[in-house]
Amino acid sequence: MSTRRSTMEMLNKAAARAHGAVDQVADAAAPAAQWIEEHGETLTTTGKKLVDNTYKYIAAHPLQSVGLALAAGYLISRLTR
């Protein structure tokens, strides 16, 4: 029975530490979540504008867009080797 009791005590201590760690992560993430909540709409609008501008650029400069895509792909492949 003492082995079972010590096992349960160890599990309870581990659970308490895990809860403490989760609480610390939640406390650390709270300011970021608040910032995103406050600025989320602006970020979404800005992202949509960037995508729209990208589509317009590609439509206006198709060959340059292909060249940029090839260059970016080449650079990424070289950097990830």
Notes on the structure:
With 81 residues, this protein is mainly α. It has one domain (2-79). The protein is 95% helix and 0% strand. It has helices at residues 2-60, 62-79. Helix 1 runs antiparallel to helix 2 (62-79). The longest helix is centred in the middle third of the chain and has 59 residues, at 2-60. The termini are far apart. The model has no long low-confidence stretch (mean pLDDT 93).
Number of strands: 0
Radius of gyration, CA atoms, in whole angstroms = 26 Å
Distance between the termini: 57 Å
| Major sheet attributes | none
Structure classification: mainly alpha
Which range does the strand content fall in? under 5%
Count of distinct structural domains = 1
Number of helices: 2
Low-confidence stretches: none
Mean pLDDT across the residues is 93
What string gives the helices and strands in order? HH
